[in-house]
Amino acid sequence: MKTTMFWSLPLFMGLGLACGKKSSGNNNPTGGNNSNNPPVVVTPKSDVEFWLTQSDKTVLFKKQTTSLVFSTTSNSYPSIDVDDTQTYQQIDGFGYCLTGGSATLLNSLTSVNKDNVLKELFAFDSTFIGISYLRISIGASDLSANTFTYDDMPSGQTDVPLDHFSINAEKTDLIPILKKILAINPNIKILGSPWSPPIWMKSNNSFKGGSLKPEYYAAYAQYFVKYIQAMKAEGIPIDAVTVQNEPLNGNNNPSLVMQASEQANFVKNNLGPAFQAAGINTKIIVWDHNADVATYPLAILGDADAKKYVDGSAFHLYSGSISALSQVHDAHPDKSVYFTEQWVGGPGNFSGDLQWHVQNLIIGATRNWSKNVLEWNLASDPGYNPHTNGGCSTCQGALTISGDAVARNVSYYIVAHASKFVRPGSVRISSAQTSNLLTVAFKNPDGKKVLIVLNKGAAQEVFNIKVGSRIVTTALSSGAVGTYVW
User: Fold this and answer.
1) Which of 246, 262, 375, 461 is catalytic?
2) pTM: predicted TM-score of the whole model, two decimal places
3) How does pLDDT run along the chain (486 residues), one tens digit per residue?
4) Contacts 24+ apart (CB under 8 A), 209-218
């Protein structure tokens, strides 16, 4: 798709879109020139804060100095009507999957650089991007260096009482990084997802594939309990867990196949009662797989004995339509919907990836009731490592970390356009769309409104943001993403 550069200044001077300019330096009230006085930067009045990313990378998540002032003057441009009297779901946050490999790479940075990078990611003042939600793996994911669980036993041995349970494997990288993150943002939400239970619980005694043997359902429920308690003892609250990452994908390493009937059985007879008995308030989320099998979460939510323990359903979008989230929400509006994973395949295509992810996830998932949006994954090295043998070998992180050098990739900007501005506790509000301008809007707890706009058309679009009887006129070039805050 051909990219049209962002509108030029002279063309839109009459629309109130002019950028600020430096004065000539002639600031002497008597009219003389005082060469000792530096030039004064005149900041134009603006009602709306505007952050921009261009699909050709000429502008990367940069606050614009454009003057955007609301007025009652009408024009012929299309309008995006934002109505905060129409409200939808509450937002939990935006962020990434902090894989074991991501934690290792972040922890390998020098102390000063590590602190600076984590502040950039998790603080939201200044130019920081304010990540407010993380997903971590319970044991290894495929983006860990090696496969492991928290109760691995020698071949042929079991540990039903979980006497050997330990999260010590996480104390080298993941837990230290999480503690630093929590020091920056103590309210960040953390979701835990297992890729595999201990292999002695599985039908094939392997990290890859297999199913959970029914005789170990009770022990596995206690495994979750011990995990949440152990992380809490480290000062790390687990807000929610999914029962199984991608339960219909047995080809990953690690992985586990768990049919809907098995997951419903495990939740209603083991996991839910175990949490209840232990006084654990961590949310239980089902499915955690693609949007093409909405029948899976619907089957579990259709079981009243399972549903009472379930907070909601989680989705990925490697297949299916994002509209499936609304299908599940509409059938069970009392249950939450989450979006928990989507990769960027390296080396990626910045323009195409930016537009697809913003359209389908930042805008699409939230317009279909999701309370969060998480990209996969936070960090990788230039070779897309680390990963397990058989794990994803081309998953590009939001960051590429090479030694002490840190580069920002497309999913950094995808998430930043929402995470910095749409704070936890915000609610989605109504926003109109046109054929080329895709939008989603939110109202923050402090009353500020946030509008995210993607121009998916082949040409520049000039448009109004309309709030009540007032409008402000702005423009986005082809493929550009803008976040507007007022």
Assistant:
1) 246
2) 0.91
3) 333 333 333 233 334 343 333 333 333 333 444 446 666 666 679 999 999 999 999 999 999 999 999 999 999 999 999 999 999 999 999 999 999 999 999 999 999 999 999 999 999 999 999 999 999 999 999 999 999 999 999 999 999 999 999 999 999 999 999 999 999 999 999 999 999 999 999 999 999 999 999 999 999 999 999 999 999 999 999 999 999 999 999 999 999 999 999 999 999 999 999 999 999 999 999 999 999 999 999 999 999 999 999 999 999 999 999 999 999 999 999 999 999 999 999 999 999 999 999 999 999 999 999 999 999 999 999 999 999 999 999 999 999 999 999 999 999 999 999 999 999 999 999 999 999 999 999 999 999 999 999 999 999 999 999 999 999 999 999 999 999 999
4) 209/250, 209/251, 209/255, 209/256, 209/257, 210/250, 210/256, 210/257, 211/256, 211/257, 211/258, 211/262, 212/256, 212/258, 212/262, 212/266, 216/160, 217/265, 217/266, 217/269, 217/270, 218/270, 218/274
Whether 262 is catalytic is: no
User: Of residues 262, 341, 375, 461, which has the active-site annotation?
Assistant: 341
Active site residue 246: yes
